[in-house]
Design brief:
A: alpha/beta, Alkaline Phosphatase, subunit A, 9-stranded mixed beta sheet, 3-stranded antiparallel beta sheet, 14 helices, B: mainly alpha, two-stranded antiparallel sheet, globular, DUF1800 (chain B), TAT_signal (chain A), DUF1501 (chain A)
C-alpha cells in the first residue's frame, strides 16, 4: 500500500493553521477561477467519460458516403450535403460527418486537438451491457473475476506515492468498476457533501467535527487514524467550495445536466490543485432501441449534452488545457440496420473522442470498411477493428506516462495506433 | 409449478418436522463439547461474551451480554449455529412485504423486465410506437404506468425495495443473528449483482432459497445450489453455454430481449442476408457451439480453489465443456425460456428423462446443448457422454479439493477473525473442512475455539462494513424502523451499495476497502443524522434507552451512554475527548438556540431515489420499546429533543473510531 500519510506531509496543511470553517486565501482564489500556487505540483490529468448504454457510433460520426448505411437506415441516415432532409452533418474529411448537434466539437477537430477513433470496441463479442461494461472497465475482456478496474491500476502506476486522497476521483455516487481496487480512489457525487453535516445547526456541526477530529486523532487503529486525518484535511480543503456560485473561466457555460455538473466539479478540483490525476464521470441514456431520432430527438439531445459539457469544461480549463486530456468510452456500438421501432439494437464497434493539446487530432483514426453485409461482424454490426485497450493504453502512456501495459491491461499485447502525438 | 395441494402438503410436512424438532430440542438440549479459551487470552467472561457478540451478531447492548453469560458462551454459540430460535416479531413485521416470498416464476410474471412492459404495450397497441421517446415523455410514462396497472404489473424497483427492506429488518431484529451474518458472507462469496439486468430479478429468491437455508450446512450443498440457480446461471452466463449445434439455441438467447427486435423482424434476416456468405459463416459459427467459460473460471477462482488453487486455462475450458447444457428452466408466462417451454410441455416426463434431461425446479439440464466429448479436469478423467452427472461430479470434486478447504477457511477467518488471519488458524479450519466433508458449522466451531480468535491481534481489529455499522447503530439505540429504505440509502452513501457490487468477487472484506476519505465522513454524518433523528422513519428514544433514568449530570450522561452503546469497551478515551462538548455552557445554549430556530428535522435531500423514499410503509415494526414517560422535565437539556446536546454526543459516539470497530 502506498503511504496514506504522504498527503499530510505533502499537503502541509498544518502549516497554514487553518481551523474549521477557514480556508487559505489562495484556495479561495483558485476556486474563484484564477490560477494560484497549489498545494501540489501540477500534474497531468486524464478525464474519462463513460457513455453507458452503448452509443451509436455510426450516428455520432457517420460514414456518409456509405450507400449500405443509407439503405440500412431509411429514417436515421443523415447526409452532409446541404439541402438534404435534415440538418446536414458536419463534413470532417469528405467521408465522415459529425452529428450536427455536436457542432461544438468541430473547432477542436479542425484545430487538430480532437481525435476520433472509429471501429473501436472489445474483442469479446458480448452484446450485454453489463458484461461489456464490466470487461471494458476491468480492462480484461475475457476475465470476469479481475478484482481491479483499469483506472485503479492506472493510479497505481503513476509512479509516485498517493500524496492526496484525490489522486483518483469519480464524480458518481458509488465507485465505478473502473476504480475498483486497492489504490486510493474517491467517489464524490457532490463536493458540498464533503463535510460534517447537522442540518440547520452549523455550530453543532462544527462542534461535532471538532470532537470527531480529536477522537480519530487518538484512536489506536492506524487505518482509522490516518484516514481520519486525511478526511478532515480534505474536508477543510473542500468545504468552502461553493458549487452554486462557482464562476467558470472564459464564460464557459456548463449544461445543467448530470454530465455538465460532474465536469464542472472536476474542473473545480483541477483548479484547486488537490493532486487529482485520474477523473471519471458518466453519461447515460445511450441505449436507443426506440425512436432515436436523427438531427433532432433523443440521440441528438444526448450528443448535444456530451459535446457541450465537454467543451464547457475545456473552455473552463483555460490555462490548464495543456495538463488535461479528455477521453470518452462506451461499451459497444449499435446495429448497422435500424430496427422496427426507429432505433438501433446492440451491436459491436462504436467510436470515441479524445480531446487534448497533445492529441493527434483532426483525424478519424481506425478502420471502417464499407458496411456491406460481408464486412459486418455476425452479418449485422460494424466490426471492431481497434481494440479499446490499444487506445486507452496509448492515452494513459502519452499523457500520464504510464507505460506498464502488462499491469494496466494484463493479457493484452497489441499496438498503439497513434492517437497521441 | 407447485399445485395448491402440494403446497399444503409440504406446509403440513414442514410444520410436523418443526414440531418434532422443537419437541426433540426440549428433551435434549444441544450437547456442547467444546469450550472457548478466552481466559488464557486474559479476558473475563463478560469481555469474552462481548467479543463473541461483536463478531457473531450485528451489534449488542449490555443486556445481550448479560443474556449470553447467563446461557453460557458455548451454548449460546451452538444456538446461533443451529439458528432455530423463534422469530415471531420479525416474521410479523416482514408480513408487510407482499412479494418477498414470490418464486422466480411469479416474479417474472409480476415484474416485467425493463423495456419488456413497453414492448408489450406497443404490441397490444396501447402505446403508439412512434410516441416512444418523443417529447417530454411525461404523458408516455403515464401511459406505460396505466398499462402496467391494468395488467397488474409492477416496476422491478418495487421488488428490490421490498427485498432491501426485509434484509435490513432481518439483520436488525432476527434472534438468529449468526445465520444472517453467514447469509451475508455466503451471498458475497457467491456474489451476483443487481447491476446485471438479466439476472437481477432472480436475486431475492437466490438469497432466500439458495443461500440462507444452507449457510451452516455442507459447503458442497451451497456450491451445488448456487451452480443450479437461475441467478448464478444468468449472472455468469452458463445458461447460454453450449457445446453442440441446437436448433433452439438462438431462440433461447433471444428470450433475454437483447436481440428481440432482430427476431421480430424475420424479414431482415430472410431477405437481407439469406444466401449471403456472412450468414453461412454465421451458421457455421453456431454449429461450433457457443462455449462460455465465465462460470467455469469463476467457480474455480472465486468459489472453490482460489486463484492460486492450482488449475490451468485448459482446466477452465474443459470444465466449461463439462458444464454445457446447465441452464434455466422455462418459467412464468412472460419469463425466460420460451423455446424450451414448448419442448417440455410437448414431451412427457419419462421420455425427457430417458433422453437425459434433468428438470429440477428452476434448473434445467439440456442434453441437446451438452458437449459429449471426453475431458480431463485437474487430472480427473471424465469419459464421453457423461451428461448431467459429470457436472455434479466436477462440482463435487471441486468442493472437496484441498485448495478449496484452504481457500474457504481463509475467507471465513478473514471475515470473522482478522483481516490477515494467521496461517495456523487457517490450517486448523482447513483440517476440519477436510475431516467433516466441508461442514461449515464445524469449521465455525474450530474457528471460535482457536486461541487465534481470542488473541490481541483479533480483538476489535475488524472494521464494520457500512451495512454492519448502520445495523449495529440501530440495534444499539433500540431504534424503531418504519422506513428501512432510508437506512439502505445511508449504507449506499457510506460506500456499500448492497447487492450492486458488479464483480463476481463480491465486496472485498477488508477495512482498507471500507475506510476511505469520503466514506469516513459519511459514517460520521450518519451517526449525527441518526442520533438527532434526521433520518425519517428511524425513531429512537434516548431516555428510554437508559430506562428513563435521568443521568445526574452531563458527565454522568456521557459515561452512561458510551457504556450503553459500546458495552465492555474501554470508553475512557472517548469520554475524555467528548467532555468539552458538554462542558461549555455557552456553547450549549448557543447550539440550542440555533437548533430551536431550525424547526423539525428535514428529509435528506440527497436520497438516491426520491420516489422510493416517498413510498414509505405505514405499518411500523412493533418493538417492545418503553414509551417515554415524560418525566424528563429537568433533563430537557440532555434528553428532551432531537437537537439536544445528548443527541449530538450520541451521534459522535456512533461516528467515533471505537464504534467503527468490531
Amino acid at each position: 500500500m502506498t503511504s496514506r500519510r504522504g498527503f499530510i506531509k505533502a499537503g502541509g496543511l498544518a502549516l497554514f493553521g487553518i481551523g474549521l470553517g477557514g480556508i487559505p486565501g489562495f484556495l479561495a482564489e483558485a476556486v474563484a477561477g484564477t490560477k494560484a500556487p497549489g498545494l501540489f505540483k501540477r500534474k497531468k490529468i486524464m478525464v474519462c467519460i463513460f457513455q453507458r448504454g452503448a452509443m451509436d457510433g455510426l450516428m455520432a460520426v457517420t460514414p456518409f458516403t456509405d450507400k449500405y448505411l443509407k439503405a440500412a437506415r431509411p429514417t436515421l441516415f443523415m447526409d452532409a450535403a446541404k439541402g438534404s432532409k435534415t440538418t446536414p452533418l458536419i463534413d470532417l474529411d469528405g467521408r465522415f460527418g459529425l452529428h450536427p448537434s455536436m457542432a461544438a466539437f468541430e473547432s477542436m477537430f479542425r484545430e487538430k486537438r480532437m481525435a476520433i477513433v472509429h471501429g473501436i470496441g472489445s474483442p469479446n463479442n458480448t452484446r450485454s451491457h453489463f458484461d461489456a461494461q464490466d470487461y471494458m472497465e476491468s480492462g480484461t475482456p475475457f476475465r470476469k473475476g479481475t478484482d481491479s478496474g483499469w483506472l485503479n491500476r492506472a493510479v497505481g502506476l503513476l509512479g509516485h506515492d498517493a500524496a492526496t486522497p484525490f489522486q483518483g476521483v469519480s464524480l458518481t455516487s458509488s465507485l465505478p468498476r473502473s476504480f475498483y481496487g486497492e489504490n486510493p480512489a474517491v467517489a464524490i457525487s457532490n463536493l458540498q457533501d464533503f463535510n460534517i453535516q447537522l442540518r440547520g445547526n452549523v455550530k453543532g456541526a462544527n462542534m461535532a467535527a471538532k470532537s470527531f477530529e480529536d477522537l480519530y486523532d487518538t484512536t489506536s487503529s492506524g487505518l482509522l487514524k490516518e484516514t481520519g486525518k486525511e478526511s478532515f484535511d480534505a474536508m477543510k480543503m473542500l468545504q468552502k467550495v461553493d458549487t452554486k456560485n462557482y464562476k467558470p473561466s472564459n464564460n464557459a457555460i456548463y449544461p445543467n445536466t448530470a454530465l455538465g455538473n460532474s465536469l464542472k466539479q472536476i474542473a473545480q478540483l483541477i483548479k484547486m490543485d488537490v493532486g487529482m490525476e485520474v477523473a471519471f464521470a458518466e453519461s447515460g441514456g445511450w441505449d436507443t432501441h426506440f425512436n432515436q431520432g436523427a438531427d433532432t430527438g433523443i440521440f441528438a439531445r444526448n450528443v448535444n449534452d456530451l459535446s457541450n459539457s465537454i467543451m464547457a469544461f475545456w473552455a473552463d480549463m483555460g490555462t490548464y488545457q495543456d495538463d488535461v486530456t479528455v477521453m470518452t468510452m462506451t461499451e459497444f456500438g449499435r446495429t448497422v440496420k435500424q430496427n422496427g421501432t426507429g432505433g438501433t439494437d446492440h451491436g459491436r464497434a462504436s467510436c470515441n473522442f479524445i480531446l487534448g493539446n497533445s492529441v493527434n487530432g483532426g483525424l478519424v483514426h481506425g478502420l471502417v470498411n464499407p458496411l456491406a453485409i460481408e464486412n459486418l461482424e455476425d452479418g449485422r454490426d460494424l466490426a471492431v477493428t481497434t481494440d479499446f485497450r490499444s487506445v486507452f493504453s496509448e492515452v494513459a502512456d502519452k499523457h500520464l506516462n504510464i507505460n506498464n501495459d502488462k499491469v494496466l491491461f494484463p493479457d493484452w499485447e497489441g499496438n498503439k495506433i497513434g492517437v497521441m502525438r | 409449478m407447485k399445485t395448491p395441494a402440494k403446497v399444503i402438503y409440504s406446509f403440513v410436512f414442514v410444520l410436523l418436522v418443526t414440531v418434532l424438532c422443537s419437541a426433540f430440542q426440549k428433551e435434549k438440549p444441544a450437547a456442547v463439547k467444546f469450550s472457548f479459551p478466552y481466559k488464557k487470552a486474559g479476558l473475563d467472561e463478560r469481555q469474552a461474551a462481548a467479543h463473541l457478540l461483536s463478531r457473531f451478531t450485528y451489534g449488542a447492548k449490555p443486556e445481550d451480554i448479560d443474556a449470553v453469560v447467563k446461557i453460557g458462551l458455548e451454548k449460546w454459540f451452538v444456538q446461533q449455529l443451529d439458528g432455530k430460535i423463534e422469530d415471531e416479531a420479525l416474521n410479523k413485521s416482514l408480513s408487510q412485504y407482499d412479494d418477498i416470498n414470490l418464486s422466480n416464476a411469479e416474479v417474472e410474471d409480476k415484474y416485467p423486465r425493463p423495456g419488456q412492459a413497453l414492448r408489450m404495450a406497443v404490441k397490444e397497441g396501447v402505446i403508439n410506437k412512434d410516441s416512444v421517446n418523443k417529447g417530454d415523455g411525461k404523458e408516455y410514462r403515464q401511459q406505460i404506468k396505466a398499462f402496467m396497472d391494468s395488467k397488474g404489473y409492477k416496476p422491478q424497483q418495487e421488488l428490490f425495495r421490498q427485498f432491501f427492506n426485509q434484509k435490513i429488518l432481518r439483520a436488525t431484529y432476527t434472534n438468529n443473528q449468526l445465520n444472517e451474518l453467514l447469509t451475508d458472507f455466503w451471498f458475497n462469496h457467491f456474489n451476483v449483482s443487481l447491476t446485471k439486468n438479466q439476472s437481477a430479478p432472480f436475486t431475492p429468491a437466490y438469497e432466500r432459497d439458495v443461500i440462507r437455508p444452507n449457510v451452516t450446512g455442507k459447503f458442497q450443498t451451497l456450491l451445488m445450489a448456487t451452480a443450479k440457480s437461475p441467478a448464478m446461471l444468468m449472472y455468469l452466463d452458463n445458461f447460454s453455454s453450449s457445446g453442440q449445434p441446437v436448433a433452439n439455441n438462438d431462440d433461447m438467447q433471444m428470450q433475454m430481449g437483447e436481440k428481440k427486435t432482430l427476431k421480430k423482424r424475420p424479414g431482415f434476416r430472410a431477405t437481407a442476408i439469406a444466401n449471403s456468405p456472412a450468414l453461412k459463416k454465421l451458421q457455421e459459427k453456431k454449429k461450433q457451439g457457443g462455449l462460455n467459460e465465465n462460470y467455469a473460471r469463476e467457480v474455480m477462482e472465486l468459489h472453490t480453489l482460489g486463484v492460486d488453487g492450482g488449475y490451468t486455462q485448459s482446466d477452465v475450458t474443459q470444465a466449461a465443456r463439462v458444464l454445457t447444457g446447465w441452464t434455466i428452466a422455462p418459467m412464468g408466462e412472460n419469463g425466460y425460456g420460451f423455446a424450451a417451454k414448448n419442448l417440455l410441455e410437448k414431451t412427457d416426463k419419462n421420455t425427457l428423462e430417458k433422453r437425459g434431461f434433468v428438470h429440477d425446479g428452476d434448473f434445467l439440464f439440456m442434453p441437446t446443448r451438452h458437449d459429449n466429448g471426453e475431458r480431463i479436469v485437474l487430472g480427473k478423467h471424465f469419459p464421453a457422454n457423461g451428461g448431467y452427472e459429470e457436472g455434479v461430479e466436477l462440482l463435487t470434486m471441486l468442493a472437496h479439493h484441498p485448495s478449496t478447504a484452504k481457500f474457504i477457511s481463509k475467507k471465513l477467518a478473514t471475515r470473522f477473525v482478522n483481516d490477515n488471519p494467521a496461517s495456523s488458524l487457517v490450517d486448523k479450519m482447513a483440517k476440519t473442512f477436510t475431516k467433516t466433508d466441508g461442514d461449515i458449522k464445524q469449521m465455525m466451531i474450530t474457528m471460535a475455539t482457536a486461541p487465534e480468535f481470542w488473541s490481541k491481534e483479533s480483538l476489535r481489529e475488524k472494521t464494520k462494513s457500512p451495512f454492519e455499522l448502520a445495523i449495529s447503530a440501530v440495534r444499539s439505540l433500540n431504534a424503531e424502523i418504519t422506513q428501512p429504505y432510508q437506512l439502505y440509502n445511508w449504507i449506499n452513501k457510506m460506500g456499500q451499495k448492497m447487492y450492486y457490487y458488479q464483480a463476481p468477487t463480491g465486496f472485498p472484506d477488508k477495512g482498507q476497502y471500507w475506510i476511505n476519505t469520503g466514506s469516513l465522513l459519511n459514517r460520521m454524518n450518519f451517526g449525527l443524522a441518526l442520533a438527532t433523528q434526521r433520518i425519517p422513519g428511524i425513531k429512537i428514544n434516548l431516555a428510554s434507552l437508559n430506562n428513563n433514568h435521568e443521568p445526574e449530570s452531563a458527565d454522568a450522561a456521557l459515561l452512561i451512554y458510551c457504556k450503553l452503546i459500546m458495552p465492555e469497551r474501554d470508553v475512557l478515551e472517548t469520554v475524555k475527548r467528548l467532555k468539552p462538548m458538554l462542558n461549555d455552557p455557552n456553547l450549549v445554549s448557543k447550539v440550542e438556540s440555533a437548533a430551536a430556530k431550525t424547526g423539525p428535522p428535514q428529509t435528506m435531500d440527497t436520497m438516491e431515489n426520491e420516489e422510493m423514499v416517498m413510498k414509505t410503509n405505514k405499518k411500523g415494526i412493533e418493538k417492545p420499546v418503553k414509551k417515554n414517560s415524560g418525566k424528563n422535565a429537568t433533563a430537557v437539556t440532555l434528553s428532551g429533543g432531537n437537537n439536544t446536546m445528548l443527541a449530538q454526543v450520541v451521534g459522535v459516539i456512533i461516528g467515533s473510531p471505537e464504534f467503527q470497530r468490531k
